Amino acid sequence: MRLEDDQLRRRRRRRRRREGGGGSAAAVQIVYVEKPEGEEPEAYHIRTLASVLGSEEAAKEALIYHYKTAASGFSAKLTPDQVAEISKKPGVLQVVPSRTYQLHSA
């Protein structure tokens, strides 16, 4: 049952990435942030993203993944203007495009 839920979520995310919001120039970005103190990382990520997108609902829709172990940050689908705006926010260290690499095996 859990595996089916995970597969369904992945399919929805892939579809959203392909559709791109009706011709917008949005792309998946990784946003590295300072580790929040006194606040859950997920809540901090949503609050930071909502400050650019205008609402928590929009932030949750754009958010793809939370990074909490090796790095502090999140990935989200953002337009170039949104990248420029979120880059100026306090606590945001860096915003980089997400890249997918294909593995080749012999």
Secondary-structure-derived class: alpha+beta
Helix content: 40-55%
How many domain units?
Answer: 1
CATH class placement: Alpha Beta
Report how far apart the termini are.
34 Å
Low-confidence stretches: 19-23
- The percent range for strand residues is 15-25%
**Assembly context of the chains:** single chain
Might you state the CATH topology name? Alpha-Beta Plaits
Radius of gyration: 15 Å
Biggest sheet: strands side by side, in what order?
Answer: 2-3-1-4
Question: Which homologous superfamily in CATH is the superfamily?
Answer: Peptidase S8 propeptide/proteinase inhibitor I9
Domain Inhibitor I9: 30-104
Protein name: Inhibitor I9 domain-containing protein
Region (Disordered): 1-24
Pfam families: Inhibitor_I9
Description:
A four-stranded antiparallel β-sheet has the order 2-3-1-4. The protein has four helices and four strands; from the N terminus they run αβααββαβ. The model is unreliable at 19-23 (pLDDT under 50). The protein is globular and about 45 Å long. The N and C termini lie far apart (34 Å). Helix 2 (41-53) packs across helix 3 (56-62). The chain has a single domain (2-97), classed as 2-Layer Sandwich (Alpha-Beta Plaits). It is of the alpha+beta class.
Short characterization:
This protein is of the alpha+beta class.
Give the helix/strand layout.
Layout: H1 2-23, E1 27-33, H2 41-53, H3 56-62, E2 63-67, E3 73-78, H4 80-87, E4 92-97
Antiparallel strand pairs: 1-3, 1-4, 2-3
Helix pairs in contact: 2-3
List keywords for this structure.
S8pro/Inhibitor_I9_sf, 106 residues, S8pro/Inhibitor_I9, 4 helices, alpha+beta, globular, Inhibitor I9 domain-containing protein
